[in-house]
Write a structure and sequence with these properties.
four-stranded antiparallel β-sheet, about 60 residues, alpha+beta, 1 helix
């Protein structure tokens, strides 16, 4: 069974930032655009705060 824990869903401008945890991949983030595109990378973060910070940096840099 694959378990995902969602820590944060927040709208920033026209993008949704999703921070989540999986047992196999630790904390990660994804950006979801208004058009439905999903951006992110398979980089692992050890805290939800670190994943959120990286996601916000992606948004502010124009992902």
């Amino acid at each position: 069974m694959f378990t995902v824990k969602i820590h944060l869903i927040v709208g920033i401008g026209d993008v949704i930032l999703l921070v989540f945890y999986t047992e196999s991949d630790c904390w990660q983030f994804r950006l979801i655009t208004a058009g439905g595109s999903v951006f992110g990378e398979r980089r692992l973060y050890f805290t939800p705060e670190a994943a959120e910070k990286a996601g916000r940096e992606w948004i502010y840099q124009g992902y």
